[in-house]
Target: UDP-N-acetyl-D-mannosamine dehydrogenase
Amino acid sequence: MRDRIEKRMAEIAVIGLGYIGLPTAIMFANAGFNVTGYEIRKDVVERINSGKAHIVEPDIDDLLRKVIESGKLRATSNPADIREKDVYIICVQTPLREDRTPNLTYLESAVETVAKAMKPGALIVIESTIPPLTTVRMAEFIEELTGLKPGRDFYMVHAPERVMPGRIFRELVYNSRILGGITPESAEIAERLYRSFVKGQVFRTKSTVSEVVKLMENTFRDVNIALANEFAYLAHQYGINVFEAIELANSHPRVKIHVPGIGVGGHCLPKDPHLLVWPARDDFGLIRLAREINDGMPLLAKDLLFEALRTINLPPEKAVVAVLGLAYKGDSDDTRNSPASAFVEAIVDDVAEVRTYDPFVEGTHGSLEEALRGADAVVIATDHTVFRSLDWETLGKLMRNRVLIDGRHVVEMPPEGFVFKGVGRGEY
Ligand SMILES: NC(=O)c1ccc[n+]([C@@H]2O[C@H](COP(=O)([O-])OP(=O)(O)OC[C@H]3O[C@@H](n4cnc5c(N)ncnc54)[C@H](O)[C@@H]3O)[C@@H](O)[C@H]2O)c1
Model:
């Protein structure tokens, strides 16, 4: 196996071709391996094989076209096409259920597909973010299905993905990588594989450690954002601008307060803290409370909107509200767990009409002007770069009333003629 990896002869199957799986498949194909991407969505398979990516990510179309044209990457929905590969890399989604417990059915089904296709000696990598102890459990599941002994008859590793959408191709190469093996040999073989394109540091450890590391990273960010959001609430009580206060506090050499806003979204941050504590015996209050604070932020934006409507004597049920941005983060089309959607949901039954405009997201208004024409209020819910330099004087003329709520600190100075409020802006 080591030799086949070094000579780029190892055959790789990537399971799940989404935000993580497709770029990963492209990177291994680009490094010279023959890669088969296995994906249950047939529309995605067709699109990828025609050389067009179904996700928005800088450079992805050029890179994809190159590996499709060279024949190094091919996508399929047929499990027979991934039989007896040397390496399987699982990149399926690991979302939460309604009750905030992990939904591991995609992972279990992917592992089952791999177990049916694999040969002895294969390396199985899970890149998906998973609750602690899951890799070991999946290795046992494969043993049950195949009779093959983990660590002896096949290798298994958890290689958590730590890239950020928008910078995926750079970060795949330069980020450090944690490889958690069910045995040291598993991690060592995986290191040879990832070294084919990773230039960052590679750390080998146990799979339970890598599972916890990945989840701690996102929990660290979530808890810190919750603290910043708590500060934003406080700023409203004291009539100050939290962003000024944070900038000043961050001038201290040992303080680094995060950025508050309308909420925390995406596939990862809102779920990973739940995955971290889910298998644990005891309750972990701080982590759960941070989640509650962040989930509550769209309601603060709602309060600010209604407060502003009151100042112009417009009952909410008569208000037409335009929400700018549906993606969970700037310059992305990803709407998963988006606080913008949570905000829309929070107001939709209380106002006359909600319109959404997001230049990256299909199914929203065709143009900003169209969304704002005749609107009473506009709420910025995503920090897309284009929203930072809007000409409010001209846009304001399209509106029936001029209320502007900034949920993302993209408007530095309140524009003339608007009733302006912002999350954390107790004062402008
Ligand atoms: N998106 C990110 O920025 C990011 C960053 C770090 C880690 N992660 C983690 O990576 C994992 C994947 O996330 P994603 O954003 O790429 O998800 P995604 O939803 O974009 O992609 C998953 C893909 O897997 C496919 N799939 C599901 N079950 C399958 C099966 N049994 N066989 C074949 N294909 C199957 C789905 O159709 C989908 O296309 C998650 O665990 C996530 O937490 C994501």
User: Anything to note?
Assistant: The chain has a mean pLDDT of 96. The first strand starts at residue 11 and ends at 15. Residues 296-422 form a domain with the Rossmann fold fold (CATH 3.40.50.720). Residues 15-21, 38-41, 44, 91-94, 106, 109-110, 113, 127-129, 161, 163, 165, 267-268 surround nicotinamide-adenine-dinucleotide (CB under 6 Å).
